[in-house]
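<instruction>
Derive structure tokens from the sequence
<data>
Labelled lines for chain and fold:
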Amino acid sequence: MEVSDAIFMLPRPDGSFEPAHAAYLKELGQRRQSVMLAFAPKAAGTFLRAAAIGAVDGQLARVVHAQGGRDGTPYLPTYIRYFLGGFPQDVLVTHLHMQAFPANRFFIEALDLKPVIMLRSVPDMLASYLDMLETEALSPSHWLNAAIPVQFVGWDYARRVDFMIDVIAPWYASYFATWFDYHRENPKRVCVLRFDDLLDDPASVLEVLLAHSRIVRSYDTCGAATDVAWREREENRFNKGEQGRGVSRFSPAQKTRVERLLFETYDLGAWRADLMA
């Protein structure tokens, strides 16, 4: 198959690839290593990607068509270019807010990618997300598969929190539901990290992340990389990193609404200790 054919040939409607296309992509995916952080927003993804770049002498590259709106779908031409030896020249480190929808799973498996996700308290992530919306200029880059109204910052606090739960929290619930199913079906494909472990021993978490990505680095190397990332945590958008912030920001009734999304709408009880910490 020619490169141009691989780039322009559309997958099937469900996202799967025709046999010849899939075989070509599988061969490409064996050529180079890469790191794929498929974290939800406010789960320390920017911090860990910086540490990963430092540990592997890697380079961050955007691998989605566009960032606006946030819910990412991998962009095949970028990956083909990388695996053929093009940009970036260093190890590709990616960070995209991506759900494990079927089309994305087909993409991941076609190129033999090894995604990593992070479990963190959903109320804590919503609280951190709310901090960002309240303190930074609103733009589509802050959206999460839903538009943030321009009058958002002028609303009273209770209404802002209700918006987070009504509009933003469902994305988080769907995100974790899709990754829970994918991890259950293919645990060797998806690496699941925990925010508590990151706070306790960031070097070990980075070591596990890289090993899953088929890149072996020593604990000391990972420790040095996370130390640098910690010193630069403001640039890496590391907000407060505290567990339990959602408890103080949301009322019991609001937290109950989040729990209903996670554990009644979706069956995420196995991750309850992490998602409602």
Notes: The chain has a mean pLDDT of 92. The CA atoms of residues 263 and 272 lie 8 Å apart. The longest strand covers residues 91-95. Strands lie at 34-37, 58-60, 91-95, 115-119, 191-194.
